[in-house]
Amino acid sequence: MTALDAVRTVDHHDSAERDAWTCAFDPAEPGAWGMHRHDQHQLVWTAVGSARAEAGGRSWVLPPSRALFVPGGTPHDVALRPPAALHCLYVWPRACGLPWTRPTVLAVSGLLRELLLSLGQGGGEGPVGGPTLALVLHEVAGAVVADDGLVLPADARAAAVAARLLADPGDDTPLADWAARLRVGESTLRRAFVTGTGLTFTEWRSCARLQTALPLLERGLPVAAVAGRVGYGSVHGFGTAFRRRYGTSPGAWRT
Q1: In this protein, which residues make up the domain named HTH araC/xylS-type (predicted)?
Q2: Residue 25 CB-half CA count within 13 A
């Protein structure tokens, strides 16, 4: 059995009878259902709060300005920090002309936001009709953002460290201490990050911190407060790293 075979397949009730539907989750829903897959494509978006999505061996933090398109059959999971208003759109490939075969990040326009909110009114699940679906997919098609996400290490020991840092990116524990806790050589753990992600441990942790900063900035927190919360000792260092990663300053992102 391969790792992909071990991922559970979810069969949505009555899904074969409709081309597309949305689901608005309860604000108290924490998510983190475990890695799973289904035959339908999925659009993941939060109207309030943020989501951390894992798909295709990569991780993204999604504030309300961004959504993630997950192609059907792709193993994925979504974790939330309640209260977070999660909205998901499910579409059968037969009704979706989008060509993407890997997870794709999207900028959520004002129109797309209003469409997804209207579809999720009343909570729970609801079908999406042909004309509305066509309009949603039209908005989605032109909204691609250049963000390949954060590669997750395949090595089990490095993956354990990565999971802890995703949960608390401000953790300053040195690599040597992580290695001691895991009873593995520091050089072995260092190689596992580089080999599995293409980034050094320090670079990977920096990217995890910058991802976590996105929803905090959108909430209007001061840049200095965000920098400290995600583990940066100086606003200047945070701003430099943020511009290098996202091509704009933290202040410009917030506005």
Answers
A1: 159-255
A2: 26
> Please, what is the end-to-end C-alpha distance for the chain in angstroms?
48
Residue 248: DSSP 8-state: S
Angle at which helix 110-119 crosses helix 130-141, to 10 degrees, equals: 150
pLDDT tops 60 at residue 1: no
3-state secondary structure of 52: strand
Pairing of strands 124-127, 41-48: unpaired
pLDDT score, position 126: 85
**Residue range 193-210: mean pLDDT, rounded:** 96
Q: Which of 62, 74, 72 is CA-nearest to residue 31? A: 62
Are 65 and 159 in the same domain? no
Q: What is the pLDDT of residues 104-134, one digit of tens each?
A: 999 999 999 999 999 888 777 888 988 999 9
pLDDT given at position 200: 96
Q: What does the DSSP assignment read for 175-226? A: HHHHHHHHTS-HHHHHHHHHHHHSS-HHHHHHHHHHHHHHHHHHTT--HHHH
**83 contacts 76 by C-beta, under 8 angstroms:** no
Last-in-domain residue among 88, 111, 141: 141
The CA-atom distances, in angstroms, between 183 and each of 16, 154, 157, 187, 200 are: 49, 18, 10, 12, 20
pLDDT at 14 over 80: no
